[in-house]
Design a protein that fits this description.
Elements: E1 6-19, E2 22-38, H1 51-73, E3 81-88, H2 94-101, H3 104-114, E4 122-126, E5 132-139, E6 152-157, E7 166-174, H4 186-193
Parallel strand pairs: 3-4
Antiparallel strand pairs: 1-2, 2-7, 3-5, 3-7, 5-6
Helix pairs in contact: 1-3
Length: about 200
């Protein structure tokens, strides 16, 4: 694969200054980016071994998306949350989009560049041109991944993507949690309820 086989790359930046009718202490920035490319596997044929294309494409997709997103967010130290997504066209198997986001050859590039330690939340589904690209996010630090303030979602759309035989791969980062978060976190609930992560009573 080369970048010539990628039809387009789209970047979206969203800055929030007022939330809930109240000014935010510092602007909250979402940065998302997506690459749109033709399905590299044979059309309308079930492919048993996806690994060669994963190995070839995933690092290139990471190169296209990760560094520009980190830069637009102001650097890794400003990033607090992240996530990823895939949408495949109507002629494609959902597994083909999952192949590119559920590999460390893609996800680790964002995790390392953002200075994160937690896993990347995700969505993977099928859709047509103009489908919402929905990217769930959470805190990038594993020890803080239960912070509900950073349970976020970025969404945008690309009017002409994905086409029926295309795959859309996207990532997003956020520079803060919700500006006026006030619902606590799961750790607080666990302590108050006397339960563990799975809801089992603590002895």
């Amino acid at each position: 694969m080369s970048t010539r086989q990628v039809r387009k790359v789209v970047q979206v930046i969203e800055d929030t200054y007022i939330e809930g009718h109240k000014a935010v202490p510092k602007p909250m920035r979402f940065v998302g980016a997506a690459a749109v490319f033709e399905n590299p596997w044979p059309a309308k044929v079930f492919t048993e071994n996806l690994r060669p294309e994963i190995l070839a494409w995933a690092p290139i997709l990471a190169d296209l998306l990760v560094d520009p997103v980190i830069e637009a967010a102001g650097g890794k130290d400003r990033i607090e949350a992240y996530g990823k997504a895939a949408i495949v066209g109507t002629n494609c198997e959902v597994e083909l989009g999952s192949a590119f986001i559920h590999t460390l050859r893609f996800g680790n590039a964002l995790r390392v560049a953002a200075g994160g330690t937690s896993f990347l939340p995700f969505s993977n589904r099928r859709g047509g041109p103009g489908s919402d690209v929905v990217i769930p996010m959470k805190n990038k630090i594993k020890e803080q991944e239960g912070a509900r303030s950073h349970f976020l979602t970025m969404d945008f759309s690309i009017p002409d993507a994905p086409g029926p035989d295309e795959i859309l791969i996207a990532i997003a980062v956020a520079t803060s949690g919700r500006p006026h978060h006030r619902i606590g976190d799961r750790y607080q609930d666990m302590e108050e309820m006397g339960v563990d992560q799975a809801g089992k009573p603590l002895k």
